Amino acid sequence: MPAVPAPWRDAAEEVRAHLVALRGGAPFLSPSDAWQLVQWLEHGVPVGDVLLALERAAEARRRQRRRTPLTLGAAKRHLGKPAYPAATAWREALELPVSGGPPLAPIARALRTREADGAAEELARALEEIGERDAAGERLALAAIRAFVEARWLAVGELRRDALRTAARAELGDLLTLVDEPTGLALVEETARDLFRQSYPWLTVASVRAFLA
After folding, report:
1. Is residue 49 part of a domain?
2. What is the distance between the alpha carbons of residues 129 and 45, in angstroms, rounded to a whole number?
3. For the whole model, what pTM was predicted?
4. Smallest Cα–Cα separation from 57: which of 33, 34, 73, 39?
5. CA-to-CA distance for 5 and 165, rounded, in angstroms?
6. DSSP 3-state assignment of 60?
7. Cα distances (Å, whole numbers) of residue 2 to 13, 37, 91
């Protein structure tokens, strides 16, 4: 069996981490997700495009009340499409009053305004150190953001996470009666994480891409 190219391994890890961050659940790609990702990589699809497609798919699922957990297959129809307007609206809201400076400085500033602690400052500085408006800069920013948001999710504690899951069940409503228990639990976890991420609407693929454009 030929060795998997190192860039592919790196890309797979980024996609896996992003998918898990969006939905929770198993910390690995399913066989069908792995196959789909290989198809995209073979055709030269940029990692950032896959991550944005996942973000679009997650947004669409909130609107359409899907009965199945988020997968790469669900993101397929979103590949190559722009971010939803609501996501990119943050670019204008966070825009610096003067030109110049690091492209992601507005996001760093918003983070410092909302939270003042070591982890937030570390992320803000990491974002400000990204000076290139290219795919490599985008991937660096998104890796730092994923690590920050996941750490915050764990840091809020089980009581807060349970409260978010309760809110998720209320939001999903009778949809949970139409699916089996494992699927229901997966949907609750995905929705709870989405509710949590809404506290950081500018820490998204769409926002990072808007500022790096």
Report:
1. yes
2. 26
3. 0.88
4. 73
5. 39
6. helix
7. 19, 17, 44
What domain range includes position 71? Answer: 6-212
Burial of 131 (0-12, 13-18, 19+ CB in 10 A): exposed
User: Is residue 190 assigned to a domain?
Assistant: yes
Q: How many domains does the chain have?
A: 1
Residue-wise pLDDT for 105-142, tens only, equals 989 988 998 888 999 999 999 999 998 889 999 999 99
Residue type, 176: L
Reported confidence tier of residue 101, pLDDT bands at 50, 70, 90: confident
What are phi and psi for residue 4, nearest 5 degrees?
Answer: -75, 130
What is the token pair recorded at 34? 């792995």
The single residue listed with the structure tokens 């996942």 is 54
Residue length of the chain: 213
Give which of 129, 114, 41, 28 is closest to 71, Cα–Cα: 28
User: Under 8 Å CB-to-CB from 41, ≥6 apart: which residues?
Assistant: 8, 11, 12
CA–CA distance, 107 with 114 (Å, rounded to integer): 11
What stretches of the chain show up as alpha helix (H) in DSSP? 6-23, 31-42, 47-64, 72-75, 85-88, 90-94, 105-114, 118-128, 135-155, 157-172, 181-197, 205-212
Count CA atoms closer than 13 A to 31's CA, side-chain side. 0
1 found inside a domain: no
- Residue 101 has phi, psi (to 5 degrees) of 90, 170
